[in-house]
Amino acid sequence: MLTKYLMYTNYFLLAVTMLLSLFFIGFVVFHSSLEKWNRKRRWNKVVTNKTREIKISKHKVTDPDMGHPLTVDDIRSFLQTLDPSLLVGIEHILLTNRLDYMNIGYFGSYSPFRSFHTEEGGTINLYPLEMEGDLYKYYAPTSITNRLGPNNKLPTSRGFYFLLDKEAAKQEMLFTLGHEIAHSNYFIKDQVLFGEELELKCDQFSRGLGCQSLTFDNSFAERNQLYRDRVRIGYIHELNEN
């Protein structure tokens, strides 16, 4: 009797386990299918509304020591040089203030499906640069200092920077815009927003659009003087000679 009872109990537990497993598998499949359907529906809505012109707007810079080298017209002219298919899904490009928690090294960002037309399209934010008079501060990235060799004495602190005229700063921000457009394309294709490999791909994408960044200019740091707190520190070779 006990043996038969245990056998029925095992059958019951096995049946319950199988039912729970089937339920779990069904739930996963249903959730995955629902997410794909929602993504497709959302994307179709974005594409439908892409017939509208991308809105380009500018917020007043709240910090008097900050400025946007790009204008709305600069952005519009740049977009006109691109294949329109690269812009599908982007509804808003905004020259805006950097959020308080953001590092000064963040020139732009991309937010998918949060825009003003449908709350479905993407928004690209471009942030202002610090200024010194009529010039723009460009803090030396480690990619520049690394190219100078292991023995270089270039300070990597946030306090050290180069000065750019408006045209050079504009080119740097157009590179950022190209980089953020790449984020939009890769998000649509792969649903990926973050990762070192993605950032490299976005840089390559922007360069493919014809945009240039001083990050990839091997001789930039040697041609330009370094500053800190409005004081000229000198050229790279002068630092390395000391």
SSE sequence, one letter per element: HEEHEEEEEHEHHHEEH
How many domains? The number is: 2
Q: Low-confidence spans: pLDDT under 50, at least 5 residues?
A: none
Helix coverage percent:
40-55%
Q: What is the number of strand segments?
A: 10
Mean pLDDT: 80
Strand content: 15-25%
How does the helix and strand content classify structurally? alpha+beta
Main β sheet profile: 6 strands, antiparallel
Distance between the termini: 95 Å
Q: Biggest sheet: strands side by side, in what order?
A: 2-6-7-8-9-10
Helix tally?
7
Radius of gyration: 26 Å
Global geometry: elongated
How would you describe this structure to a colleague?
The chain is of the alpha+beta class and about 240 residues long. The protein has two domains: about 1-50; about 50-240, no CATH class. It has seven helices and ten strands. A hairpin with a 2-residue loop joins strand 6 and strand 7. The model has no long low-confidence stretch (mean pLDDT about 80).
